[in-house]
């Protein structure tokens, strides 16, 4: 998958895109990440990319000319890509959107800065605005990183075992089950017996039940939209009734 990032701060991406899973995915040719400096498309001597807002007021606005020139070029180079502006006004990012984006041939991520982007650029080039949550960042760069990392995990082969993605939080709308490693007893707390049993079916049942319990405890709102089987619903009722202990 190819992802182009358009920013006035390319160095922001240096370290995060050169570490861990993303780095390995790039090395293996699974991810083609390209960070572009918007200033390269500014034609004046000082490479200006912002200007004062019409109507007055605080803050600056991203000028249309460099941004449109950049997007014209990137969209021509990569016609299948979705052009996305990171902004607090966008669709709120979640695992459902991650999955949708993971199936696309590519993305062009535009990192908004200043007070905003000239509306005509949005109308002409932006397919969709994305927000990573209801709060305001100083720019879209942090949000673009979130999009890259989450979408990269959807690209086949990026995350080692498909099994581990299937068990992640949010895969089927639930939180993940708790995890344990050695020692079997730590500061007076034991690892649940089912996990020590070696009985794979019992372990799978325990994990499902505890995923339901964690979701009920920590994010009960997720249960309304989760993909639950009749067995899950019955288990939830038992958990609520205090009739399913955690061992
Ligand atoms: N830019 C500023 N705030 C943002 C947010 N919450 N999501 C995406 N981009 C942003």
Task: Explain how this protein is built.
The protein is an alpha/beta fold and 247 residues long. It is built from nine helices and ten strands. It has helices at 20-27, 64-77, 95-102, 119-125, 141-152, 162-166, 193-196, 200-218, 230-240, and strands at residues 2-7, 32-37, 50-51, 61-62, 82-92, 106-111, 116-117, 128-131, 185-186, 189-190. Strand 1, helix 1 and strand 2 form a beta-alpha-beta unit. Helix 3 (95-102) crosses helix 5 and helix 8 (200-218) packs across helix 9. The mean pLDDT is 95. It binds adenine (ADE). Adenine is lined by residues 86-88, 112, 131-133, 135-137, 140, 143. The site of adenine has 12 residues, from strand 5.
Could you give a quick summary of the protein structure above?
This protein is an alpha/beta fold. It contains nine helices and ten strands. The model has no long low-confidence stretch (mean pLDDT 95).
Write the layout of secondary structure elements.
Layout: E1 2-7, H1 20-27, E2 32-37, E3 50-51, E4 61-62, H2 64-77, E5 82-92, H3 95-102, E6 106-111, E7 116-117, H4 119-125, E8 128-131, H5 141-152, H6 162-166, E9 185-186, E10 189-190, H7 193-196, H8 200-218, H9 230-240
Parallel strand pairs: 1-2, 1-6, 4-7, 5-6, 5-8
Antiparallel strand pairs: 3-4, 9-10
The structure holds adenine (ADE).
Name some characteristics of this structure:
36% helix; five-stranded parallel beta sheet; three-stranded mixed beta sheet; alpha/beta; 247 residues; binds adenine; 9 helices
